[in-house]
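Table 4 source record.
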Amino acid sequence: DALRGQGIAERDIQTSQFSIQPRYVYPKPRTNGETQAPRIVGYTVRNGLGVRVRDLAKLGAIIDRSVTLGVNEGGSISFTNDDPAAALAQARAAAVEDAAARARTLAAAAGVRLGKVLEITEQSYNPAPVPMLRAKVMMADAAESVPVAAGENSYEIGVTLTYAIEQ
């Protein structure tokens, strides 16, 4: 409910890990040297959530609120792009332009002319999300929200152009 109160949609909250582990007490050996079996005295329950924050301006406040509610272990913050299509199209266009310029330079140096393009192949490199935080979240008095800097993601596209050569 606290996340929803911060404007996080239900579809942006997902259980990422859940575990229940018994906690044991190991009794001291008896005076005759006989050992006793360990006893379960409780359980440790971990419930990990993956949360997508679409408004980065709210991220610091969401982290702060999580700490005040008792979250005592934080994971990684990764910055991704929900719709990389425009960035990828721009990277492809730049890659083709760069490959064509290199081909023209090489053809001029070799004393030949470029004919029509016979083949275009693409090599794309999918970036991993940019990790920003991996730390224990600790209780602290803070006048401001936790500062979070998103930086930028980059996309790399490589293109190979195969031209016909004209003499």
